[in-house]
Description:
- Helix content is 42%, strand content 16%.
- It has 18 helices and twelve strands.
- Mean pLDDT is 87; it is low at 324-361.
Amino acid sequence: MTLINDRNIKMWSTIGSRATFGMTALELAKKHEDLMVLTCDVSTSAGLDRFRKTYPDKYVDLGIAEQNMIGVAAGLASEKFKVITTTFAPFQTMRCCEQIKVNAGYMKKKICMVGIASGLVLGTLGFTHCCIEDIGVLRSIPGLTIISPADSLETIKAINKAIELNAPSYVRLTGGSNNPIVYQKDYHFEIGKSIELIEGKDVTIFSTGSMVYNSLEAAKILSSKSISCKVVNMHTIKPIDKEAIEKSFNSKLIVSIEEHNIVGGLGSAIAEHKSKFKDSPKQLFLGIKDIYGKGGTYSYLKDIHRLTPEKIVEDILANLWFQMSNKEIYKDTFIKSLSIGPDKFNEKIKYNEIEEWDSIGHMTLISGLEESFKITFETDDIIDFSSYKKGQEILTKKYKINFS
Protein backbone atom coordinates (compact mmCIF):
# COMPACT_ATOMS: atom_id res chain seq x y z
CA MET A 1 0.00 0.00 0.00
CA THR A 2 1.09 3.61 -0.58
CA LEU A 3 3.13 5.10 2.26
CA ILE A 4 0.72 6.80 4.68
CA ASN A 5 2.19 9.92 6.30
CA ASP A 6 1.18 13.53 6.99
CA ARG A 7 2.54 14.80 3.67
CA ASN A 8 0.71 12.22 1.58
CA ILE A 9 -2.54 12.59 3.49
CA LYS A 10 -2.51 16.33 2.77
CA MET A 11 -1.61 15.73 -0.89
CA TRP A 12 -4.42 13.17 -1.35
CA SER A 13 -6.86 15.61 0.21
CA THR A 14 -5.77 18.35 -2.18
CA ILE A 15 -6.07 16.26 -5.34
CA GLY A 16 -9.32 14.57 -4.26
CA SER A 17 -10.55 10.99 -4.37
CA ARG A 18 -10.46 10.59 -8.16
CA ALA A 19 -6.79 11.45 -8.56
CA THR A 20 -6.02 9.48 -5.41
CA PHE A 21 -7.67 6.46 -7.02
CA GLY A 22 -5.35 6.86 -10.01
CA MET A 23 -2.30 6.91 -7.74
CA THR A 24 -3.62 3.85 -5.90
CA ALA A 25 -3.90 1.96 -9.19
CA LEU A 26 -0.22 2.71 -9.88
CA GLU A 27 0.76 1.19 -6.54
CA LEU A 28 -1.50 -1.83 -7.03
CA ALA A 29 0.12 -2.57 -10.39
CA LYS A 30 3.49 -2.90 -8.67
CA LYS A 31 2.04 -5.44 -6.28
CA HIS A 32 -0.26 -7.41 -8.56
CA GLU A 33 1.02 -8.78 -11.87
CA ASP A 34 -2.54 -9.87 -12.65
CA LEU A 35 -4.14 -6.42 -12.27
CA MET A 36 -6.26 -5.06 -15.15
CA VAL A 37 -7.91 -1.63 -15.21
CA LEU A 38 -10.80 -1.01 -17.61
CA THR A 39 -12.28 2.41 -18.37
CA CYS A 40 -14.78 4.07 -20.67
CA ASP A 41 -12.93 7.07 -22.07
CA VAL A 42 -12.16 8.58 -18.63
CA SER A 43 -8.42 8.10 -18.14
CA THR A 44 -7.92 11.78 -17.29
CA SER A 45 -11.11 12.16 -15.24
CA ALA A 46 -10.28 9.05 -13.19
CA GLY A 47 -6.67 10.12 -12.62
CA LEU A 48 -5.36 7.22 -14.73
CA ASP A 49 -3.21 8.98 -17.33
CA ARG A 50 0.05 7.99 -15.61
CA PHE A 51 -1.22 4.45 -15.15
CA ARG A 52 -2.17 4.22 -18.84
CA LYS A 53 1.30 5.34 -19.92
CA THR A 54 3.23 3.31 -17.36
CA TYR A 55 1.27 0.06 -17.68
CA PRO A 56 -0.25 0.00 -21.19
CA ASP A 57 -0.65 -3.79 -21.04
CA LYS A 58 -2.72 -3.52 -17.88
CA TYR A 59 -5.06 -0.83 -19.20
CA VAL A 60 -8.00 -1.20 -21.58
CA ASP A 61 -10.14 1.74 -22.73
CA LEU A 62 -13.45 0.42 -24.07
CA GLY A 63 -14.67 3.84 -25.24
CA ILE A 64 -18.16 4.95 -24.27
CA ALA A 65 -19.45 1.38 -23.99
CA GLU A 66 -20.17 0.63 -20.36
CA GLN A 67 -22.14 -2.58 -20.95
CA ASN A 68 -19.24 -3.94 -22.98
CA MET A 69 -16.81 -2.93 -20.24
CA ILE A 70 -18.58 -5.16 -17.70
CA GLY A 71 -18.64 -8.05 -20.18
CA VAL A 72 -14.90 -7.75 -20.84
CA ALA A 73 -14.28 -7.42 -17.09
CA ALA A 74 -16.20 -10.63 -16.43
CA GLY A 75 -14.13 -12.43 -19.07
CA LEU A 76 -10.86 -11.24 -17.53
CA ALA A 77 -12.08 -12.16 -14.04
CA SER A 78 -12.87 -15.66 -15.36
CA GLU A 79 -9.18 -15.92 -16.29
CA LYS A 80 -8.18 -15.02 -12.70
CA PHE A 81 -7.21 -11.40 -13.31
CA LYS A 82 -7.85 -8.81 -10.60
CA VAL A 83 -10.15 -6.41 -12.45
CA ILE A 84 -11.02 -2.79 -11.71
CA THR A 85 -13.56 -0.97 -13.87
CA THR A 86 -14.24 2.74 -13.64
CA THR A 87 -16.21 5.59 -15.16
CA PHE A 88 -18.56 8.27 -13.88
CA ALA A 89 -20.88 6.80 -11.28
CA PRO A 90 -24.22 6.94 -13.16
CA PHE A 91 -22.67 5.20 -16.16
CA GLN A 92 -20.69 2.70 -14.05
CA THR A 93 -23.86 1.56 -12.29
CA MET A 94 -27.09 2.26 -14.15
CA ARG A 95 -26.15 2.25 -17.82
CA CYS A 96 -24.80 -1.28 -17.41
CA CYS A 97 -27.02 -2.49 -14.59
CA GLU A 98 -28.17 -5.66 -16.37
CA GLN A 99 -24.58 -6.66 -17.08
CA ILE A 100 -23.66 -6.05 -13.43
CA LYS A 101 -26.62 -8.18 -12.35
CA VAL A 102 -25.76 -11.10 -14.66
CA ASN A 103 -21.96 -11.02 -14.85
CA ALA A 104 -21.06 -9.75 -11.38
CA GLY A 105 -24.07 -10.71 -9.29
CA TYR A 106 -25.45 -13.89 -10.83
CA MET A 107 -22.13 -15.25 -12.11
CA LYS A 108 -20.27 -14.00 -9.01
CA LYS A 109 -17.33 -12.61 -10.95
CA LYS A 110 -14.76 -10.71 -8.90
CA ILE A 111 -14.98 -7.23 -10.38
CA CYS A 112 -14.13 -4.09 -8.40
CA MET A 113 -16.25 -1.29 -9.87
CA VAL A 114 -15.26 2.29 -9.01
CA GLY A 115 -17.87 4.98 -9.56
CA ILE A 116 -16.16 8.36 -9.78
CA ALA A 117 -17.79 11.71 -8.99
CA SER A 118 -20.89 10.23 -7.40
CA GLY A 119 -23.40 12.32 -5.47
CA LEU A 120 -23.79 16.00 -6.34
CA VAL A 121 -20.25 17.08 -7.27
CA LEU A 122 -21.02 17.25 -11.01
CA GLY A 123 -24.03 19.45 -10.36
CA THR A 124 -23.22 21.97 -13.05
CA LEU A 125 -23.88 19.20 -15.60
CA GLY A 126 -27.30 18.47 -14.10
CA PHE A 127 -28.77 15.21 -12.91
CA THR A 128 -27.66 13.29 -15.97
CA HIS A 129 -24.23 13.31 -14.32
CA CYS A 130 -25.15 13.71 -10.66
CA CYS A 131 -25.64 10.27 -9.14
CA ILE A 132 -28.08 9.90 -6.25
CA GLU A 133 -29.38 6.42 -7.11
CA ASP A 134 -26.35 4.12 -7.37
CA ILE A 135 -26.44 2.70 -3.83
CA GLY A 136 -30.15 1.99 -4.08
CA VAL A 137 -29.79 0.29 -7.46
CA LEU A 138 -26.81 -1.90 -6.57
CA ARG A 139 -27.93 -2.72 -3.03
CA SER A 140 -30.64 -4.91 -4.55
CA ILE A 141 -28.11 -7.13 -6.36
CA PRO A 142 -27.28 -10.16 -4.19
CA GLY A 143 -23.69 -10.67 -3.12
CA LEU A 144 -22.41 -7.23 -4.14
CA THR A 145 -20.41 -5.23 -1.57
CA ILE A 146 -20.85 -1.42 -1.53
CA ILE A 147 -18.28 0.94 0.01
CA SER A 148 -18.38 4.74 0.19
CA PRO A 149 -15.06 6.15 1.52
CA ALA A 150 -15.11 9.21 3.80
CA ASP A 151 -11.95 10.84 2.41
CA SER A 152 -9.00 10.24 0.12
CA LEU A 153 -7.08 8.09 2.61
CA GLU A 154 -10.10 5.85 3.02
CA THR A 155 -10.37 5.64 -0.77
CA ILE A 156 -6.95 3.98 -0.82
CA LYS A 157 -7.88 1.57 1.94
CA ALA A 158 -11.24 0.70 0.39
CA ILE A 159 -9.83 -0.13 -3.05
CA ASN A 160 -6.99 -2.19 -1.58
CA LYS A 161 -9.51 -4.25 0.39
CA ALA A 162 -12.11 -4.45 -2.39
CA ILE A 163 -9.79 -6.06 -4.96
CA GLU A 164 -9.00 -8.80 -2.44
CA LEU A 165 -12.66 -9.71 -1.93
CA ASN A 166 -13.87 -13.01 -3.27
CA ALA A 167 -16.97 -11.21 -4.56
CA PRO A 168 -17.98 -8.25 -6.77
CA SER A 169 -17.80 -4.80 -5.21
CA TYR A 170 -18.64 -1.17 -5.85
CA VAL A 171 -16.53 1.69 -4.46
CA ARG A 172 -18.47 4.97 -4.56
CA LEU A 173 -16.27 8.08 -4.70
CA THR A 174 -17.85 11.38 -3.63
CA GLY A 175 -16.55 14.92 -3.32
CA GLY A 176 -14.13 16.83 -5.52
CA SER A 177 -10.61 18.18 -5.17
CA ASN A 178 -9.64 19.70 -1.83
CA ASN A 179 -11.49 16.84 -0.22
CA PRO A 180 -11.69 17.50 3.58
CA ILE A 181 -9.53 15.22 5.72
CA VAL A 182 -11.40 12.91 8.08
CA TYR A 183 -8.45 10.69 9.04
CA GLN A 184 -5.28 12.54 10.06
CA LYS A 185 -3.27 9.32 10.50
CA ASP A 186 -3.31 5.65 9.60
CA TYR A 187 -6.06 3.45 11.05
CA HIS A 188 -7.59 0.00 10.75
CA PHE A 189 -10.11 -0.41 7.95
CA GLU A 190 -12.29 -3.48 7.61
CA ILE A 191 -15.10 -3.96 5.11
CA GLY A 192 -18.42 -4.31 6.92
CA LYS A 193 -17.16 -2.75 10.19
CA SER A 194 -18.08 0.88 10.76
CA ILE A 195 -15.83 3.29 12.67
CA GLU A 196 -16.99 5.37 15.63
CA LEU A 197 -15.29 8.75 15.26
CA ILE A 198 -16.87 10.59 18.20
CA GLU A 199 -18.55 9.23 21.31
CA GLY A 200 -21.93 10.64 22.32
CA LYS A 201 -25.17 9.76 24.08
CA ASP A 202 -27.97 12.06 22.86
CA VAL A 203 -27.79 11.52 19.10
CA THR A 204 -26.14 8.90 16.91
CA ILE A 205 -25.22 10.10 13.43
CA PHE A 206 -24.49 7.46 10.80
CA SER A 207 -22.92 8.97 7.71
CA THR A 208 -21.05 7.83 4.65
CA GLY A 209 -18.82 9.30 1.95
CA SER A 210 -18.44 13.07 1.85
CA MET A 211 -21.06 13.50 4.56
CA VAL A 212 -18.80 12.05 7.25
CA TYR A 213 -16.83 15.29 7.47
CA ASN A 214 -19.99 17.40 7.50
CA SER A 215 -21.38 15.18 10.26
CA LEU A 216 -18.28 15.79 12.36
CA GLU A 217 -18.65 19.53 11.86
CA ALA A 218 -22.35 19.36 12.77
CA ALA A 219 -21.49 17.40 15.92
CA LYS A 220 -19.13 20.19 17.00
CA ILE A 221 -21.90 22.76 16.66
CA LEU A 222 -24.35 20.56 18.56
CA SER A 223 -21.77 20.00 21.30
CA SER A 224 -21.61 23.78 21.81
CA LYS A 225 -25.36 23.59 22.45
CA SER A 226 -24.87 20.82 25.06
CA ILE A 227 -26.06 18.05 22.75
CA SER A 228 -23.79 15.02 22.76
CA CYS A 229 -23.46 13.30 19.36
CA LYS A 230 -21.91 10.01 18.43
CA VAL A 231 -20.63 10.08 14.85
CA VAL A 232 -20.17 6.79 13.02
CA ASN A 233 -18.51 6.42 9.63
CA MET A 234 -20.63 3.74 7.93
CA HIS A 235 -18.20 3.33 5.05
CA THR A 236 -19.69 -0.03 4.09
CA ILE A 237 -23.37 0.18 3.17
CA LYS A 238 -23.57 -3.47 2.17
CA PRO A 239 -23.07 -5.54 4.22
CA ILE A 240 -24.31 -3.03 6.81
CA ASP A 241 -22.78 -3.09 10.30
CA LYS A 242 -25.78 -4.40 12.27
CA GLU A 243 -23.96 -4.39 15.59
CA ALA A 244 -23.20 -0.66 15.31
CA ILE A 245 -26.87 0.07 14.57
CA GLU A 246 -28.00 -1.89 17.64
CA LYS A 247 -25.45 -0.06 19.82
CA SER A 248 -27.17 3.22 18.90
CA PHE A 249 -30.50 2.19 20.44
CA ASN A 250 -29.73 4.04 23.69
CA SER A 251 -29.70 7.36 21.79
CA LYS A 252 -32.68 9.69 21.71
CA LEU A 253 -32.42 10.06 17.94
CA ILE A 254 -30.69 8.18 15.11
CA VAL A 255 -29.69 10.24 12.08
CA SER A 256 -28.57 8.93 8.69
CA ILE A 257 -26.76 11.40 6.43
CA GLU A 258 -25.83 10.65 2.84
CA GLU A 259 -25.17 12.40 -0.47
CA HIS A 260 -27.76 10.12 -2.06
CA ASN A 261 -31.50 9.74 -2.35
CA ILE A 262 -32.99 9.01 1.08
CA VAL A 263 -34.81 6.14 -0.66
CA GLY A 264 -32.71 3.01 -1.00
CA GLY A 265 -29.42 4.23 0.44
CA LEU A 266 -27.71 4.23 3.84
CA GLY A 267 -30.80 5.41 5.69
CA SER A 268 -32.92 2.66 4.18
CA ALA A 269 -30.32 0.02 5.07
CA ILE A 270 -30.30 1.20 8.69
CA ALA A 271 -34.10 1.36 8.86
CA GLU A 272 -34.45 -2.16 7.47
CA HIS A 273 -32.41 -3.53 10.34
CA LYS A 274 -34.06 -1.26 12.94
CA SER A 275 -37.48 -2.54 11.89
CA LYS A 276 -36.70 -5.90 13.49
CA PHE A 277 -36.66 -4.32 16.95
CA LYS A 278 -39.67 -3.15 18.93
CA ASP A 279 -38.39 -0.02 20.68
CA SER A 280 -35.62 1.41 18.52
CA PRO A 281 -35.25 5.22 18.49
CA LYS A 282 -36.77 7.50 15.90
CA GLN A 283 -34.68 7.90 12.74
CA LEU A 284 -34.12 11.13 10.84
CA PHE A 285 -33.27 10.62 7.14
CA LEU A 286 -31.04 13.37 5.70
CA GLY A 287 -30.10 13.33 2.04
CA ILE A 288 -31.75 14.16 -1.27
CA LYS A 289 -35.50 14.01 -0.70
CA ASP A 290 -36.41 11.74 -3.63
CA ILE A 291 -36.39 14.56 -6.18
CA TYR A 292 -34.44 15.71 -9.23
CA GLY A 293 -33.80 19.40 -8.77
CA LYS A 294 -32.07 21.97 -10.91
CA GLY A 295 -28.35 21.83 -11.55
CA GLY A 296 -25.84 24.05 -9.83
CA THR A 297 -22.44 24.16 -8.16
CA TYR A 298 -21.53 21.51 -5.64
CA SER A 299 -21.72 23.92 -2.69
CA TYR A 300 -25.07 25.28 -3.89
CA LEU A 301 -26.62 21.82 -4.23
CA LYS A 302 -25.40 20.72 -0.81
CA ASP A 303 -26.96 23.84 0.66
CA ILE A 304 -30.39 23.54 -0.99
CA HIS A 305 -30.54 19.84 -0.13
CA ARG A 306 -29.70 20.73 3.49
CA LEU A 307 -26.44 18.78 3.60
CA THR A 308 -24.21 21.52 5.05
CA PRO A 309 -23.22 21.27 8.72
CA GLU A 310 -25.44 24.21 9.62
CA LYS A 311 -28.53 22.79 7.90
CA ILE A 312 -27.85 19.36 9.39
CA VAL A 313 -27.81 20.95 12.85
CA GLU A 314 -31.12 22.72 12.23
CA ASP A 315 -32.83 19.52 11.15
CA ILE A 316 -31.44 17.53 14.07
CA LEU A 317 -32.54 20.18 16.56
CA ALA A 318 -36.05 20.35 15.12
CA ASN A 319 -36.41 16.57 15.51
CA LEU A 320 -34.50 16.14 18.75
CA TRP A 321 -36.74 18.47 20.76
CA PHE A 322 -39.59 16.00 20.56
CA GLN A 323 -37.42 13.17 21.90
CA MET A 324 -36.17 14.70 25.13
CA SER A 325 -37.43 14.01 28.64
CA ASN A 326 -39.40 16.61 30.65
CA LYS A 327 -36.80 18.42 32.73
CA GLU A 328 -33.97 17.94 30.26
CA ILE A 329 -35.87 19.46 27.38
CA TYR A 330 -36.51 22.80 29.06
CA LYS A 331 -34.00 23.32 31.80
CA ASP A 332 -30.80 22.42 29.99
CA THR A 333 -30.39 21.16 26.45
CA PHE A 334 -33.60 22.49 24.93
CA ILE A 335 -33.12 26.14 25.84
CA LYS A 336 -29.41 25.99 24.97
CA SER A 337 -30.22 24.58 21.54
CA LEU A 338 -32.46 27.44 20.40
CA SER A 339 -31.24 28.70 17.05
CA ILE A 340 -31.14 32.32 18.29
CA GLY A 341 -29.14 31.35 21.38
CA PRO A 342 -30.00 31.68 25.08
CA ASP A 343 -28.70 35.26 25.35
CA LYS A 344 -31.25 36.70 22.93
CA PHE A 345 -33.93 34.50 24.42
CA ASN A 346 -33.27 35.98 27.86
CA GLU A 347 -33.62 39.51 26.52
CA LYS A 348 -37.43 39.09 26.47
CA ILE A 349 -37.55 39.71 22.74
CA LYS A 350 -41.11 39.25 21.54
CA TYR A 351 -41.86 36.56 18.97
CA ASN A 352 -42.79 38.96 16.17
CA GLU A 353 -39.37 40.61 16.43
CA ILE A 354 -37.43 37.36 16.02
CA GLU A 355 -37.37 36.60 12.30
CA GLU A 356 -34.50 34.13 12.74
CA TRP A 357 -36.77 31.54 14.34
CA ASP A 358 -38.34 30.56 11.02
CA SER A 359 -39.46 26.90 10.89
CA ILE A 360 -37.97 26.04 14.26
CA GLY A 361 -39.33 29.08 16.00
CA HIS A 362 -41.94 30.02 18.50
CA MET A 363 -44.64 27.47 17.66
CA THR A 364 -42.07 24.66 17.48
CA LEU A 365 -41.00 25.63 21.00
CA ILE A 366 -44.61 25.57 22.17
CA SER A 367 -45.32 22.26 20.44
CA GLY A 368 -42.21 20.69 21.90
CA LEU A 369 -43.11 21.75 25.42
CA GLU A 370 -46.68 20.51 25.04
CA GLU A 371 -45.47 17.17 23.76
CA SER A 372 -42.83 16.75 26.49
CA PHE A 373 -44.90 17.86 29.45
CA LYS A 374 -48.24 16.46 28.18
CA ILE A 375 -49.98 19.81 28.55
CA THR A 376 -52.00 22.14 26.32
CA PHE A 377 -51.20 25.83 26.43
CA GLU A 378 -54.01 28.36 26.46
CA THR A 379 -53.86 30.99 23.73
CA ASP A 380 -52.94 33.81 26.13
CA ASP A 381 -50.05 31.76 27.49
CA ILE A 382 -48.68 31.20 23.99
CA ILE A 383 -48.69 34.93 23.36
CA ASP A 384 -47.14 35.68 26.76
CA PHE A 385 -44.39 33.12 26.28
CA SER A 386 -41.94 35.80 25.14
CA SER A 387 -38.86 35.05 27.25
CA TYR A 388 -37.14 32.28 29.14
CA LYS A 389 -38.02 33.85 32.49
CA LYS A 390 -41.66 34.45 31.58
CA GLY A 391 -41.97 30.97 30.09
CA GLN A 392 -40.56 29.32 33.20
CA GLU A 393 -42.95 31.36 35.34
CA ILE A 394 -45.96 30.24 33.28
CA LEU A 395 -44.88 26.59 33.37
CA THR A 396 -44.14 26.63 37.11
CA LYS A 397 -47.14 28.53 38.44
CA LYS A 398 -49.92 27.63 36.04
CA TYR A 399 -48.95 24.20 34.80
CA LYS A 400 -47.19 22.99 37.99
CA ILE A 401 -43.94 21.99 36.26
CA ASN A 402 -41.14 21.75 38.82
CA PHE A 403 -37.60 22.54 37.60
CA SER A 404 -35.81 22.15 40.92
